[in-house]
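S1.2 Input.
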Amino acid sequence: MLHQAALAHGIKLLVVERSLPGKLDSAAYLQQLAQQISDHAAGQPIRLLGFSIGACLALRVAARLGERVAEVYLLSAAAPLQIPSNSVGMGAGRYTFLWAQHYPRLFRAFAWYQALLAKVSPGLLLKLLFAGAGGKDPELLHHADTQAWLVDIQRACFKHGTRSYVRDVELYVEPWAAELNNVTAAASLWHGEADNWAPIAMSIYLQEHLRYASAVSRGAEHAHYSCLLENAETVMATVQLNISATRAAES
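S1.3 Output.
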């Protein structure tokens, strides 16, 4: 959903391959992601973009890459759950994360059930996921193109089983707040005030605990996915503006 906006601004997006082989522990997994990104960058400044719990990956990778990362762009960011106040206002999805934290076998069984639904009844899985969603998010299921996009995401997520999904969720629920101290990149954040999957308090927490974060850009009626869709153009325009400013400063 960012692709067309990126093309319009002359930006090349690279999607990080997260379906890495083997049973890697958290440190090895993050290091492989960081190495993959560094190899693709080939010495150029790195700009990372994370959505939802992808913000965790973007920030933890940025902490490892240090000054090689120029900027981090975060939409509907999910902040560390080890901070109790971050989960206030989170809807039914909090149970998935609680299971991942405290009952890993139950969580993995639930992941298997989600993978089964994604295969045999993706429409039902979408309805279950969006039950109780805030703001403009429920309207997304009434648009055929967006619904097809979400179904494709589900299928891709479980294409090779549940391992990658389980790995990313379990990585997110780890304690990682202290790693924010090692993020030296500038951070821009967008968040919907109606988001009850990752409440806006999460982005506010990140703004307060990252060294170089701008104020959170809020959307009054935006929720989780609607924040991403409504801000795609703005985010890519911001990336282009920052790249141009960097080049002007170097010339």
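S1.4 Remarks. Residues 3-250 form a domain with the Rossmann fold fold (CATH 3.40.50.1820).
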